[in-house]
């Protein structure tokens, strides 16, 4: 089975701070699966490391106050293209990210407060019929 997965969950150092979110349990789970790895922010031409960003209304703003919405939209569109080309039905994306988060995101004030919401890429994938899970709930899905 093919599954799209956030690159940082697989151990790639693509996070804003140049680190990763490697998840060993997820890696073990994915052993017999065909993994399509993506980092939407990299696909949107954002560098590593980069300033952290949060969603504010319908914009994405980085900690320096720069509007990076176009990068996030580009990354989301490219990720969707890859998913469609690869016939992806399910993705496991990093929770809470302004790109990959599928249930909660930070509230836009850079004060570590989570609110209900979706990252730009997760939202676009869902809108196009792809099931988006995260590293906490993927086992709840009927694989
Ligand atoms: Fe990880 Fe997604 Fe952020 Fe890339 S955009 S670092 S894959 S959470």
Explained architecture:
The protein is an alpha/beta fold. It has one domain (2-88, 101-140). Helix content is 24%, strand content 21%. The protein is built from four helices and eight strands; from the N terminus they run βαβαββαβββαβ. It has helices at residues 24-29, 40-43, 69-85, 120-127, and strands spanning 2-6, 34-38, 53-56, 59-62, 90-92, 104-106, 114-116, 131-133. The strands form three sheets. Strands 2-1-5-8 form a four-stranded parallel beta sheet. The longest helix is centred in the middle third of the chain and has 17 residues, at 69-85. It starts with a strand and ends in a 10-residue tail after the last strand. The structure holds iron/sulfur cluster.
What is the strand and helix layout of this fold?
Layout: E1 2-6, H1 24-29, E2 34-38, H2 40-43, E3 53-56, E4 59-62, H3 69-85, E5 90-92, E6 104-106, E7 114-116, H4 120-127, E8 131-133
Helix pairs in contact: 3-4
Bound molecules: iron/sulfur cluster.
Iron/sulfur cluster is lined by residues 6-8, 14-15, 39-41, 94, 97, 99-100.
Strand order of the largest sheet: 2-1-5-8
Hetero groups bound? iron/sulfur cluster
User: From the alpha-carbon coordinates, what is the Rg to the nearest angstrom?
Assistant: 14 Å
| Global morphology | globular
Q: How do the SSEs run, as a string of H and E?
A: EHEHEEHEEEHE
Question: Strand content of the residues, in percent?
Answer: 15-25%
Tally of distinct domains: 1
Mean pLDDT: 98
Total beta strand runs? 8
- The portion of residues assigned to helices is 10-25%
Largest sheet: 4 strands, parallel
Note the gap between the termini.
9 Å
Q: How large is the count of helical segments? A: 4
Helix/strand structural class: alpha/beta
Uncertain spans, ≥5 residues at pLDDT below 50? none
């Amino acid at each position: 089975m093919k599954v799209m997965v956030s690159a940082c969950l697989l151990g790639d150092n693509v996070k804003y701070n140049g680190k990763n979110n490697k998840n060993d349990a997820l890696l073990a789970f994915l052993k017999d699966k065909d993994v399509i790895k993506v980092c939407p922010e990299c696909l949107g031409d954002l560098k590593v490391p980069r300033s952290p960003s949060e969603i504010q209304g319908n914009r994405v703003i980085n900690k320096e106050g720069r509007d990076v919405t176009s990068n996030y939209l580009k990354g989301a569109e490219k990720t969707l293209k890859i998913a469609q080309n690869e016939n992806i039905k399910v993705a496991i994306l990093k929770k809470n990210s302004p790109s990959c988060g599928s249930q909660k995101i930070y509230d836009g004030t850079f004060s570590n407060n989570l609110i209900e919401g979706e990252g730009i890429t997760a939202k676009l994938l869902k809108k196009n019929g792809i099931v988006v899970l995260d590293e906490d709930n993927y086992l709840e899905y009927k694989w």
